[in-house]
């Protein structure tokens, strides 16, 4: 594959991933919705940033009840985004730039408009009936069990289908019926969808709620102490591991080190770790606690310790993520905790940006594979979405706002008369756009570029061990060691400077500072407020 060398270390261990939510990345046809051509047009910008791989959220045919996570055809591009020829060109251009391409795969459920479900719902005797999970009503006519659907915690994970007199299971929206992976024909059909995209040259998959593909056939009630928790966060069944091993064998049979990273949204890091198997299930699994961690040293220390404790004995490789399309951006979360009594909004915003900068350095220096969500490299916060513009059933519109490209009136999203972007843009688009930040070496964009370059040039920050270092209260420190090479990363989670000279790091070479594009050559020992510093021994 041109521009993509195979190395002794799997590429996904060394890579920095960049998540693209295609509806909001870049638009080329003026309809206010991003498309594949928009991604292709900005591949050079991503190569300049220094990322290694793109994860592209769903672009398959879909009625868009859940904006692409309700698939009506796994093997085609929705016309909203382009076509298969355009996707092939995107992959070819990305590979020519040395960028890998990973796409979303949604194995747990389809759309109600998928031909499989249309047929399944036509009759209890239809050929696809057993491709989905159907059950008779309970004696009182209620759903078969007490499982709760995601998004609306008052809603059952079941919908009654009047024409055939049974309930069908949907762990998410009513428009997203769950596939029945106990049916061998489903397994083969879903394996074929993987083969379709692997044959087109994709480098791997992000598997959506992949822990859902196994379910206890008895469908027992969730226990009372877990009532009100969506069943998708509780579903953890041994047969899933067998199915993942079969998927892993399929993927590993392809040349070029293809891979899969799984969304295993369980409430225990120990449970998530089991989905790596013994290097025979998922290559990577998302580590979600940082998505919910406030900007506190003890909470982040716990996140790091839990990941190392759960994964290291298995030889499993961690992942790290600050934001994604399902959760508020990390700068928005840190905004909420940055305020001090009597402070003005401008001061609060400066502090939240400082925190987001330090978090970026932390993300890119931990042991594991980092995932950057589009727009975080601009320091974006969530958009304020008026009630009449809200469209997402899960209330996730704010983090999905279109990415501002320049300082023009439309910020790089020219639309036809009478048309607007599918969601409003995030605040501060005049200054938090790609053109303005590329021209400013002090910008968040340049920080991400420097941090990625520092990571690439410093092998111990990629493959070295990660050992915690005792540090002053309100700070976090860890050491990355590979052979004779050693770096130490320090992060101050507080609003005041901290003297770290007792750690013996003063005078060491400074590789990276979160708030200074041209730091002093040697570390003074003082860690600034909400600052991250990387030093080399």
Number of strands: 20
Q: What CATH architecture of the largest domain would you give? A: Alpha-Beta Barrel
Report the average pLDDT across residues. Answer: 95
Continuous helix count: 15
Distance between the termini: 38 Å
- Give the full name of the CATH homologous superfamily of the largest domain: Glycosidases
What kind of sheet is the major sheet?
Answer: 8 strands, parallel
What is the global morphology?
globular
CATH topology value of the largest domain: TIM Barrel
The gyration radius over C-alpha positions equals: 24 Å
Helix vs. strand class: alpha/beta
Q: Would you identify the regions where 5 or more consecutive residues have pLDDT less than 50?
A: none
> In total, how many domains does the architecture comprise?
2
Strand content: 15-25%
Strand order of the largest sheet: 11-10-9-5-2-1-13-12
Helix content: 25-40%
CATH C-level of the largest domain: Alpha Beta
């Amino acid at each position: 594959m041109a521009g993509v060398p195979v190395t002794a270390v799997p590429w996904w261990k060394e890579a920095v991933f960049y998540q693209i939510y295609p509806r909001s990345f870049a638009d080329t046809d003026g309809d206010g919705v991003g498309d594949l051509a928009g991604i292709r047009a900005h591949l050079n910008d991503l190569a300049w940033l220094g990322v290694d791989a793109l994860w592209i959220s769903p672009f398959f045919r879909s009625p868009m009840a859940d904006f692409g996570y309700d698939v009506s055809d796994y093997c085609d591009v929705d016309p909203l985004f382009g076509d298969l020829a355009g996707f092939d060109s995107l992959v070819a251009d990305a590979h020519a730039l040395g960028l890998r391409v990973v796409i979303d795969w949604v194995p747990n459920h389809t759309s109600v408009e998928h031909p499989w479900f249309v047929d399944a719902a036509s009759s209890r005797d239809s050929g696809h009936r057993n491709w989905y999970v159907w059950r008779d009503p309970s004696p009182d006519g209620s759903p078969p069990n007490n499982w709760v659907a995601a998004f609306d915690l008052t809603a059952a994970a079941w919908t009654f289908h009047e024409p055939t007199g049974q309930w069908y299971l949907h762990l998410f929206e009513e428009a997203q019926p769950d596939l029945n992976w106990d049916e061998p024909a489903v397994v083969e059909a879903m394996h074929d969808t993987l083969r379709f995209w692997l044959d087109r040259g994709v480098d791997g998959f992000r598997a959506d709620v992949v822990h859902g593909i196994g379910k206890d056939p008895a469908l027992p009630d969730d226990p009372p102490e877990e009532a009100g928790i969506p069943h998708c966060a509780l579903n953890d069944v041994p047969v899933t591991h067998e199915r993942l091993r079969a998927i892993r064998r399929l993927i590993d049979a392809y040349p070029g080190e293809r891979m899969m990273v799984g969304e295993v949204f369980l409430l225990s890091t120990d449970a998530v770790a089991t989905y790596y198997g013994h290097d025979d299930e998922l290559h990577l699994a998302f580590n979600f606690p940082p998505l919910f961690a406030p900007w506190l040293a003890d909470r982040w220390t716990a996140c790091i310790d839990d990941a190392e404790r759960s994964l290291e004995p298995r030889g499993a490789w961690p992942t790290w993520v600050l934001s994604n399309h399902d959760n508020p951006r990390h700068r928005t979360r840190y905004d909420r905790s940055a305020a001090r009594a009597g402070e003005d909004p401008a001061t609060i915003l400066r502090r939240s940006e400082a925190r987001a900068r330090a978090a970026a350095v932390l993300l890119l220096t931990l042991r594991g594979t980092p995932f950057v969500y589009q727009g975080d490299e601009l320091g974006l916060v969530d958009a304020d979405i008026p009630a009449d513009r809200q469209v997402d059933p899960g209330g996730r519109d704010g983090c999905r706002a279109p990415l501002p490209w320049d300082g023009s009136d439309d910020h790089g999203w020219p639309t036809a008369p009478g048309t607007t972007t599918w969601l409003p843009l995030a605040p501060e688009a005049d200054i938090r756009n790609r053109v303005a930040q590329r021209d400013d070496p002090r910008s968040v964009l340049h920080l991400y570029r420097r941090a990625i370059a520092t990571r690439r040039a410093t092998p111990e920050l990629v493959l070295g061990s990660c050992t915690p270092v005792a540090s002053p209260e309100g700070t976090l420190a860890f050491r990355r060691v590979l052979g004779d090479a050693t770096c130490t990363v320090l992060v101050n989670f507080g609003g005041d400077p901290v003297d770290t000279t007792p750690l013996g790091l003063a005078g060491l070479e400074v590789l990276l500072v979160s708030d200074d594009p041209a730091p002093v050559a040697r570390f003074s020992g003082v860690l600034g407020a909400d600052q991250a510093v990387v030093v080399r021994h």
